[in-house]
Amino acid sequence: MRKVVEMNNIHKRYDGQQIETHALQGISLEINSGEFVAITGPSGCGKSTLLSIMGLMDSASEGEYQLANINTAGLKVDQRTQIRNEHIGYVFQSFNLIDNLTVFENVALPLEHRGTSNSEIKQRVEQVLTQVDMLHRQNYRPNQLSGGQQQRIAIARALVGKPDLILVDEPTGNLDSKNGDQVMALLEQLNKEGSTIVMVTHDSRYSRCANRQIQLLDGRIVTEQQLKGVA
């Protein structure tokens, strides 16, 4: 099975004025293609820091990280940006959609950054909007949509570039339970269709949707549990 993520002894330290915070302390893990992994734990345990390093938004203070067989050590900012664009889809709790762009334009952005042709952009955007059941809203703007619909658009944007890895940060945090359930059902379906997903969540109901659960406490992995087989 192809490894998408290989982390070995990852540490992350933040230097404050008087105190050094050790956000991650020796994290080692592997994530294979086709897995759906939930990262859980209390606030401040290092979940979002781990996701940021996995998504090349931040870099480790120490340790090795390989993403899709690419060694990420010592990469310049523009290299990290390019690798993120080609290999990672990111879904944020706050959606991070651009208000003055239409749904179609928001979803098309990652492909535009790659210089993809207009005809291929149209084909891919329509395909992923159909996957998340939002094609009929392609000419709307984000402020014309509900929170649940905006999160579906954010997921479509993460999918459009056919990434090796989709990172999802508290996807139901800003949603009511009905919309949260629908977003989780969508993520489960995408995983069944082959997407590799790593999700940070504090909600134990939703973490059980994953194949595997990793629990963090004080920047360390304290438990790791296989919940079900990979689709």
Kindly describe this structure.
The chain has 231 residues and is an alpha/beta fold. 34% of the residues lie in helices and 28% in strands. It is built from seven helices and ten strands. The strands form two sheets. The protein has a six-stranded mixed sheet. Strands 2-1-4-5 form a four-stranded antiparallel sheet, covered by helices on one side. Helix 3 crosses helix 4 and helix 5 packs parallel to helix 6. The protein is globular, with a radius of gyration of 17 Å. It starts with a strand and ends in a 5-residue tail after the last strand.
Distance between the termini: 13 Å
Q: What does the average pLDDT come to?
A: 92
Largest sheet: 6 strands, mixed
Give the ordered list of helices and strands: EEEHEEHEHHHEHEHEE
Output the number of helix runs: 7
Beta-strand percentage?
25-35%
Q: Report the count of strand segments.
A: 10
Structural class: alpha/beta
CA-based gyration radius: 17 Å
Unreliable stretches, pLDDT < 50, 5 or more residues? none
Looking at the structure, what is the overall shape?
A: globular
| Helicity level | 25-40%
Strand order in the sheet with the most strands = 6-7-8-3-9-10
Search tags:
7 helices, globular, six-stranded mixed β-sheet, single chain, alpha/beta, four-stranded antiparallel β-sheet, 231 residues
